[in-house]
Every structure is written in structure tokens, then in C-alpha cells.
Amino acid sequence: MSDGERTVRRPGPRLSRTGRLLLVAALCVLVILAVLIVPRLLGGGPERAERLTVPEGQRASQVYAAADKALHLASGSTAKAATSARLALPDEAKGNPEGYLFPATYPIDSDTTPKSLIAYMVDTANRRLADDGIASYRTVVIASIVQAEADRPGDMGKVARVIDNRLAKNMPLQMDSTINYALGRSTLNTSHSDTKTNSPYNTYKHQGLPPTPINNPGADALKAAGAPPKGDWLYFVTVNPGDTRFTADYQEHLKNVREFNEAQEAAG
Questions:
Q1: How many CB atoms within 10 Å of residue 175?
Q2: Which residue, 34, 41, 122, 215, has most beta carbons within 10 Å?
Q3: Alpha carbon 222 to its chain's center
Q4: DSSP state at residue 99
């Protein structure tokens, strides 16, 4: 090439506007895949749920199972953590948080552990109990029975009054819900053999309250147990949904029970 000549560079092929958009889209997909896949390759595991909701009346075993699922942990992890966690529980609870895993929705983030989650629930329960002026473990135990037995919130006060009245008269509570807890089930049908179950939660066989709450009661049940209405009721049975009958007369109660049994047979 002689002096005075200059090199002319021909422009290379250019991407069309559509091609550029496709390239940008492909790069975005690669970034997204990197965000999702790289943490797993590094041991980050699947993404956690952002919250956990504890419904009213769930038992501790059910809360633990839901926490394991939300935190992507092996089954039994939260239950094991709860036994070694330092929880702000009354002495009567003996470290068992049943009744104090307050029904609410709890946030979950990358720092949440089974122990921190359970402690948060217990702290929430203590705050709510303090706000409502409830300081007695006995009241929480009664509230848990009320939560399990009442057909609707409007009946909770009367159920609590029945419990108080029966305790005052040294009558066994005879609550099916406590037997269900002992047997790890939920049913409306309690057989005669069930009432012979050898468990401190069998309130047909043992007088007084069960040794612990039988679930985690909500605010309505706690308020009902803390301040039940006046009344002489000693018996109740929910004949049909929305139709719970309270009475102090045993013969009237037997009549109501017969109607309940007939309704159950009709329902199959």
C-alpha cells in the first residue's frame, strides 16, 4: 500500500431493531435464571414462603407441620426446636407452648428459624393476653376447650360458663374435644369405649381440667373464657350447625342428645 492511500473499513453487519430486542430479552432471561439457579447450586435451597398463617384452634402439632413446610425443613424440625427453645411460658406449661402459638399471620424471611418463629408466636400470645387482662394458665386451658367445642363465636361465652359451672360443682367436664386431643383426631362421634381412654386428657374419666390446653385458641375464645356470661347451664349439645342447646336440666339435655343422634343418623 503506497503512501497517501488510506484504509477503508467496511461496516460489519448490523442487528435490526427486532434483533436487538431479542438480544436484550435473551440477556434478561439469563439474568433471571442466574438469580433462581445459582443460589440453589450454592446450597440456598428453594425459596421460602413469605408468611405463615396459624388458624384459630390448630393444635401445636399442626402448627409445627405447617412451619416445617413454610421453612422447607424436614418433618419434625420445628417440633424438635420447640422443645429446646427458651420460651416465655408460665411455669404450669412446663415448656409446652400448646395454647400459646397465637393464631395470626407471621412474616417469614431468610433469617427465620423454627425457634425464632415459635418464640414470636408465644410473645404475640403474651402481648394479647396482657391486653385482655388474662394472666391465668387455667383461662387459656378453658379457652382451648371453648374453641374446640363452640359451634360459633356467639356460643363461646355459654360454653365457658358451662365449664366453670361444672368445675364449681365438682362434676367431670365430659368434653369430647379433650378425648379427641388424647387420641390425636377430630370427630363428633365419641363411643363408649372412647370415654374409657386412659389419658389425663380424658375428662370423662378424670375430674377437673386437662393438664394443658388442647389447641391454640383465638381472641374470641380467650375473651369468653376470661369473662363468661352469667347462667346456670350445665349441659350443651349442638344438634345441628347453628343450633346449640344449653340447659341446666339433665332430662332436657338427654332429649337434645337424642335429637343430635337422630340428626347424625339421618346424615349417614
A1: 25
A2: 215
A3: 15
A4: T
Residue with cell 425464632: 116
DSSP 230: P
Number of domains in the chain: 2
In a domain, 24, yes or no: no
CB 210 within 8 A of CB 200: yes
Q: Please write down the long-range contacts of 169-173, taking CB distance under 8 Å and 24 or more positions apart.
A: 169/234, 170/207, 171/207, 171/234, 172/203, 172/204, 172/205, 172/206, 172/207, 173/145, 173/203, 173/207, 173/208, 173/209
What's the count of helices (H) and strands (E) in the chain, helices before strands? 9, 4
In the block, cell 503506497 appears at 2
List helix spans (H) across the chain: 17-41, 60-71, 77-84, 114-131, 137-149, 156-168, 176-183, 219-226, 250-266
Asked if the structure places residue 5 within a domain, the reply is: no
Length of the chain equals 268
Q: What is the pLDDT of residues 124-170, one digit of tens each?
A: 999 999 999 999 999 999 999 999 999 999 999 999 999 999 999 99
CA distance 70 to 113: 11
Model confidence, pTM: 0.82
Of the CA atoms within 13 Å of residue 148, those in its CB half-sphere come to 24
Q: Rounded to a whole number, what is the distance in angstroms from the first to the last CA of the chain? A: 103
d(CA 58, CA 41): 36
Could you list the residue range(s) of the whole structural domain that residue 195 is in?
146-266
